[in-house]
Structures are given as structure tokens and as C-alpha cells.
């Protein structure tokens, strides 16, 4: 017959569980902002790639028409940009992290802008011109962290 004093307690005490939960919460508070930044860097990289696609489409459009296009829908109808860029060119696109628009276009140059939308945490814009200069800043409103593209075509 076993006596209660000789049995080993199986399980965790409330204090041990509290310590483990606290340590997990502290670890998560350090890791989650890094993941959020990494996801935002990916969104900025995708927006930069879309701007480069628009840049190439504008160059092809200029070869055909001797002027740059002032409307992304026209570039889409010509088959020069994909559906994703066309959908993100409408200001009402709520699921798009960036909205694209042609700021200016004529026979000598153009500027296309990608505005960061759909976030209460991130804001800013990226732009590309006829020379392929990609610039702009996306900033985190909750910290001093900024993301800027470093490519020039």
C-alpha cells in the first residue's frame, strides 16, 4: 500500500505555469515587431518590383507612341502590366498594401507613385521616374524605423 507522502506529485504548480507564460510573453514581445518589419520589407520590395514593371511598361509604351502613358489602365489594356498592378491602381483597393498612380507623364518623362495604404502602422510612398530612379520612404508610426528602396535601374 502506498502512502501519500511516498507518491511523487505529477503536474505543474500555478507559480511554475505563471513563470513559463511570462517568459513566453517577454520573448514574443521581442520577436513579433521583427516579424512585422520583415513582412513590411517584403511589401516594400514587392511595391518596388511593381514600380520597376511599370517603368519597363512605360519604356515600351514610349517606343510605340513617342510619349509616356498617363494611365495605368491603358498600360494594362496593352498587356504591359499585370492584373495585380491594375487592381492596385484604384484608390478603393482595400486589400492592397500599395496603390499605384501615374503622377505625371508626357513625351519626355513620367513619375509613378506607390502610396502605402491599408495600415494604421505604416505610411509613406515610393516613386520611380523615367530614368529608373526609385526613391521614397515607408515609416513605422509606432517607432523610428524606416524602409527605403536602394535600387536604381
Notes on the protein architecture:
The protein is about 40% helix and about 20% strand. The chain has a five-stranded antiparallel sheet with strand order 1-2-3-4-5, covered by helices on one side. The termini are far apart. By secondary structure, the protein is of the alpha+beta class. It is built from three helices and five strands, in the order αααβββββ. The model has no long low-confidence stretch (mean pLDDT about 90).
Strand segment tally: 5
Strand order of the largest sheet: 1-2-3-4-5
Shape: elongated
Calculate the terminal CA-CA distance, rounded to whole Å: 83 Å
Structural class given helices, strands, pairing?
A: alpha+beta
Looking at how many chains there are and whether they match, the oligomeric state comes to: single chain
Question: Helix content range of the residues, please?
Answer: 40-55%
- Helical segment count: 3
Q: What does the radius of gyration come to?
A: 25 Å
Largest sheet: 5 strands, antiparallel
Give the integer mean of the pLDDT values: 88
Ranges where pLDDT stays below 50 over 5 or more residues in a row are: none
Order of helices and strands: HHHEEEEE
Share of β-strand residues: 15-25%
